Amino acid sequence: MLATQISAVRAIDIAISFVDREEKRLRAIMESDAFSGDEKFQALQDLAYLSGIVVRELADIHAASDRPKGATSKAAEVVERIEPTDSHDAKRPKRKRGTGEDIEVKAATFRQDVCDNLSEGVYFVDKERKITYWNRGAQNLSGFQRDEAAGRHCHDNFLNHVDAEGRPLCHGGCPLAATLKDGQAREAEVFLRHKAGHRVPVAVRVSPVVDNSGKLVGAVEVFSNIAWRKDLERRAKELEELAYCDSLTRLSNRRHIELKLKQAQEEAQEFGRKAGVLLLDIDGFKRVNDAYGHAAGDVALKAVGERLTEALRPGDAAGRWGGEEFLLVALDVNLPELEALAERCREAIAACRIPVEGQLVSVTVSVGGALLKKGESAEAAVKRADELQYVAKCQGGNAARVRVEG
């Protein structure tokens, strides 16, 4: 029995040292903007785990009727360590010796003090999903004060969590409920409803909470506002569209379709992947502009872009090549398939009617196509397609011509 108690005291010595170092590290992290929410959360988990070791060892010592000499002083030292104090105090106040229950309370107070200093929202639930703790970060992010959230069940749906498609999660798809069911940690990006009524995009991390025996007793959820990241993603998408999208037709612009063509040519050279190009030119486009104005020409360009998008197969790419010309890059095609695709595009556009000055005007295209050949540049393949497109236009337009050079 004596050996066990001495070992317990030794374990407390080690744990005290760990907790002391981790406390300093965590507080440094919380006071710095250089650390991410994930790093803060990991430091919090480490500290909670180590302080839990101290509490369990002290509880064992106080429960023993013949605890060794020095055990009580060790308990007092731990109480002093885990008591929250001002970080600017030169000295910590001395504490009276406490009972195991006192230490549990002080440890809980310390952990609450740590959680409340996090900018992320943190809340704990029991197995019935009743909220047992709600930190200041959760108050700031949700608008709900601690007394409004603690004691309620998260499935009361007062946060109204939904996914990106707007589907409610509280009664199906809730990561917290799933963790309580299988004990596995989870991450998700969802939206919560602020008390003021607006939506807040948040990154959610859920971890199981177990007791000393390893039994699942609840879960902890940490959530952080990712509105800044969503805004960056939106702005990045806008910049990408400016760089790669034709503003009128919403197809790829010349730069982007050239990149797609180069990629197809490289794959054809390195891996023998079959690919082809189609070059389309609107028949009589100058007459449309001259007769009805440039606005009607823009309508025609948009209509052709829409019909091409509908005719594309998965993996194909289409872009505005310049003026009234369009280029289509088709992957994994042989000659008959490229001919069929060219004819499908021609027919789809020929069936189109655009409204101009109270009447419907038809639009047709001349199409030329060519398969990429090994050892040939992408520019050479486009030139062959251009020559065949010219042949189709000279034969009256509204036609498609595709061939393989020997």
Brief synopsis:
The protein is an alpha+beta fold. The chain has helices at 2-30, 37-63, 71-82, 100-116, 136-142, 146-149, 175-182, 227-244, 254-271, 285-292, 294-311, 335-350, 378-394; strands at residues 121-126, 131-134, 186-193, 199-210, 216-225, 275-282, 317-322, 325-331, 353-356, 359-362, 365-371, 400-403.
Structure notes:
This protein is α+β, with helices and mostly antiparallel strands and 406 residues long. The chain has 3 domains: 1-115, no CATH class; 119-239, Beta-Lactamase; 245-403, Alpha-Beta Plaits (2-Layer Sandwich), CATH 3.30.70. 49% of the residues lie in helices and 20% in strands. It is built from 13 helices and 12 strands. The protein has a 5-stranded antiparallel β-sheet with strand order 2-1-5-4-3, sandwiched between helices. Strands 7-8-6-11-12 form a 5-stranded mixed β-sheet, with helices on both faces. It has a two-stranded antiparallel sheet with strand order 9-10. Helix 10 (285-292) packs across helix 11. The longest helix has 29 residues, at 2-30. Mean pLDDT is 80; it is low at 1-12 and 52-98.
Name some characteristics of this structure:
single chain, 406 residues, alpha+beta, Beta-Lactamase, Alpha-Beta Plaits, 3 domains, 5-stranded antiparallel sheet, 5-stranded mixed sheet, 49% helix, 20% strand, elongated, disordered N terminus
